[in-house]
Design a protein that fits this description.
15 strands, iron, alpha/beta, Purple Acid Phosphatase, chain A, domain 2, Calcineurin-like_PHP, 268 residues, 6-stranded mixed beta sheet, 20% helix, Metallo-depent_PP-like
């Protein structure tokens, strides 16, 4: 990790829910997920010329194959910056760890500039919902307790709050209160960042910024009772982590990507 002046903002990009397949032709609802990721990466490269850190918050793969993770790594290698991965419900953490051997890709705690980034594993084997096991909660507590004067951003995959989509609620983070019970004791935690919901979310909760981000492939329709996708373009989130603890952020989409979904193809 290169040394950064702690007085300047840390420039971060989040990519999430790429759902890559071993097969380069693999699609979700007719959308080629490698192609959509390429377009999002190109959009980032046009708009964010000075990234310090790339955060990839789960469901990097759809089939948990070695080939899919290798493809994700290759498609994002052009940024040439420090990168961190965490698993989602479609991922296999052990495969990710094997791919990451000899690198810092799955490092849980990263200090950069005046900030500490904590990457947690909320995936449950064989399930769609999320849970932070005791070991993950202990990791979080330890990371926050030893953060010193650093501001903190905590990342994971499953949503810890109701985002107004009834069908998504049961597959969120089942022990969100345990998470909030820890972070609320540490005022240096400035934000929580997740994926999973394939749509943007930005909410303040007692001074804590709660953020979700569009997928780099298909998008879920906001405020939907039942499973529903939208034809919005894939996207990413940028963050500016300031030395005084301020967190600036926004979502951008791959405006040149033509979304054509096949609703007769096998479902998500």
């Amino acid at each position: 990790m290169p040394h950064l002046d702690p007085t300047r903002p840390v420039h971060v990009v989040q990519l999430t829910d790429a759902h890559l397949f071993a097969d380069p032709a693999g699609t979700l609802l007719g959308l080629n997920t490698r192609d959509s990721l390429r377009h999002v990466v190109a959009q980032v490269q046009r708009e964010q010329p000075a990234i310090d850190l790339l955060l990839c918050t789960g469901d990097l793969s759809q089939d948990a194959s070695v080939a899919s993770y290798e493809a994700f790594r290759e498609l994002t290698a052009g940024f040439g910056v420090a990168t961190r991965w965490l698993p989602g419900n479609h991922d296999e953490a052990r495969v990710m760890a094997d791919i990451a051997q000899g690198t810092d890709l799955v490092q849980a705690v990263t200090d950069i500039g005046g900030w500490r980034i904590v990457m947690l594993d909320s995936a449950v084997a064989g399930a769609t919902h999320g849970l932070l096991e005791e070991a993950q909660l202990s990791l979080l507590e330890g990371a926050l307790k030893t953060a010193g004067e650093r501001h903190c951003l905590v990342c994971f995959h499953h949503q810890p709050v109701d985002i107004g989509c009834a069908w998504i609620a049961p597959i969120g983070l089942r022990n969100a209160q345990a998470l909030f019970g820890i972070v609320e004791r540490y005022p240096q935690v400035r934000g929580l960042l997740w994926g999973h919901v394939h749509q943007p979310w930005d909410e303040m909760r007692e001074g804590l910024r709660l953020l979700a981000t569009p997928s780099t492939c298909i998008q879920f329709a906001a405020h939907s009772e039942d499973f529903k996708v939208s034809e919005e373009q894939p996207g990413y989130r940028w963050l500016r982590l300031h030395a005084d603890g301020r967190l600036e952020t926004g979502v951008e989409r791959a405006r040149d990507f033509d979304v054509k979904l096949d609703f007769d193809s096998p479902g998500y």
